[in-house]
Amino acid sequence: ILLFLKRARLDSIRHFNGIQIDRQLITALAERWRKETHCFNFREGEATITLKDVAILTHLPIDGKPVCVSDHPPEDRDGMPGWVHFIHSHLGVKVPVKGCVDATDRMPPMRKHQVSITWLTKYFRDHYESHPLTEESPEDEKERYARVYLIGMIGGVFFSKKSSNLLSCGWLRIIFSSWEEMGEYSWASACLAMIYHNLCNASLKAVREVSGAMFIVQFWVWEHMPWIAPAQRSDRDWPIDHPLRGEAYGTR
């Protein structure tokens, strides 16, 4: 599915699945965030994450259209609710609305205008075990797996909520568009805006959790404050084109 991700200019996201977050570090940073200035207040002064930082750390495109998501459902068709038909027409799977509970998360696969990422990825994982994806697989089959992969990465990693299992169906309008059209969006700008939004929420006294792409915040701290970063591995341990090698900053 990598060829489809490259057409969408999103092939770099494959490096960011399963990254362990240093929760103590993120908590300490959230306590120093000021929503009035969108900056961290350190002893040495103010500092913040810029669009350039996000572009370097993630290799996501910064040029293009703004990422705007609308939850307004499409019209009901063929006796199915709008979003259920929308998913069925692009992925070939009918998501149950009620009467079926996900055994892992104890919630229905679709709730209002949100779809369960866990249920959807599990469905395709089970399908993959009986119908493995190969180079000889039909192109439409490869595309479906690529779009499900994007659903998991966008909804569960880059733009995740506190309940990272649910994805707003509005995202599907972008994910199910053509690959070239998907590459016309400024994904790095959307990531930065979401990071600011989540840090502003996390800085409030009553809030106990933070969501979103906090791994970008973590990498930013490691790059600019190397004395608290993990021990540097040798360059031989990193792929040549890995976006986290640090060469773009010229600091390692």
Automatic annotation (TrEMBL):
Aminotransferase-like plant mobile domain location is 16-234
Q: Which GO terms describe its biological process?
A: meristem maintenance
What InterPro entries would the database entry show? Answer: AminoTfrase-like_pln_mobile, MAIN-like
Enumerate the Pfam families for this protein: PMD
Record-given protein name: Aminotransferase-like plant mobile domain-containing protein
Q: Species lineage, top-down?
A: Eukaryota, Viridiplantae, Streptophyta, Embryophyta, Tracheophyta
